[in-house]
Amino acid sequence: MGLIDGLLDLARIEAGRLRLEPAALPLPAFLDELVRMVQPQAQAKRLAFVYTHSGRMPAWVHADAKRLRQILINLLSNAVRFTDEGTVTLHVDCRREVVRFDVVDTGIGIAPQDQQRIFMPFERGAAGRRRGEPGTGLGLTITALLTSLMGGELGLVSAPGRGSTFSVRLYLREVSDPGPQAEAPRQVGGYVGPRRTLLVVDDQPVQRQMLAGMLAPLGFVLREAASGSECLDSLREAVPDAILLDITMDYLDGWQTARLVRDAGYTLPILIVSANMFENQPSACWPRNARPSSASR
């Protein structure tokens, strides 16, 4: 989830203005879709991804699909991100109308002194900070708050070097089949093929974190540069698959940086990231036959 969405959700929850929208949810199909979203991320890191369940799983439950998906994607994406070898497991245990979702990994683990801190906004454990993994720092905060809002419990068992288990326990009332429904749009959960590297160039760390928070869960490798000159230095070290380039930066703006990238002979795609695709666009920025790609923020 991007930083802006995260901050909005956090503000709504803390102000009591975020309202759940529960409806009939086909739990087995919902979980199968979740597995299809996360499995490519694990496979890209050569991790085994295991999905198991126990107890009688109801065909339909009363739940807010968007918020339940948000909780589980946050936990599963973190498990993949902080696991370098081994397995990420999603186990679903159904007992009457109480469902427990266990996300188990063989990753770096979390030190005891960090196990409360990581649920605070913008906080990370020491091991995570040392790895320099991109992210917004809001995922676990919002996961915990959403779990509480849904009347559930979130637990953690972990130790450094021995992996982590996050457990979400929710009351999900079984309901009858509501009959034919409009098919929901499919969620984008990753991409096929080798892992791609993106260079995010923005002088505002919040914006870099926002993009990293949106793209890292999809399986992209993210590198960051805080200026146009840092972008050029980074290209000399290693050429990514594409550049995401902000326009309004100090010293060298996005258009000037893109021109220097092309003048240096780099032909990789450049995606201009801006709220306004015509923002600060010089009339004679680009040499003939050299144009950037553009994407709205």
What are the SSEs and their pairings?
Elements: H1 3-14, E1 23-25, H2 27-44, E2 48-54, E3 61-63, H3 65-81, E4 87-95, E5 98-105, H4 126-131, H5 139-149, E6 153-158, E7 164-171, E8 197-201, H6 205-215, E9 221-225, H7 228-237, E10 242-246, H8 254-263, E11 270-274, E12 293-296
Helix pairs in contact: 1-5, 2-3, 3-5, 7-8
Structure notes:
This protein is of the alpha/beta class and 297 residues long. Helices cover 32% and strands 23% of the residues. It has two domains: 3-171, Histidine kinase-like ATPase, C-terminal domain (Heat Shock Protein 90, 2-Layer Sandwich), CATH 3.30.565.10; 197-296, Rossmann fold (3-Layer(aba) Sandwich), CATH 3.40.50. It is built from eight helices and twelve strands. A five-stranded mixed beta sheet has the order 2-4-5-7-6, covered by helices on one side. Helix 1 runs parallel beside helix 5 (139-149), helix 3 runs antiparallel to helix 5 and helix 7 runs parallel beside helix 8 (254-263).
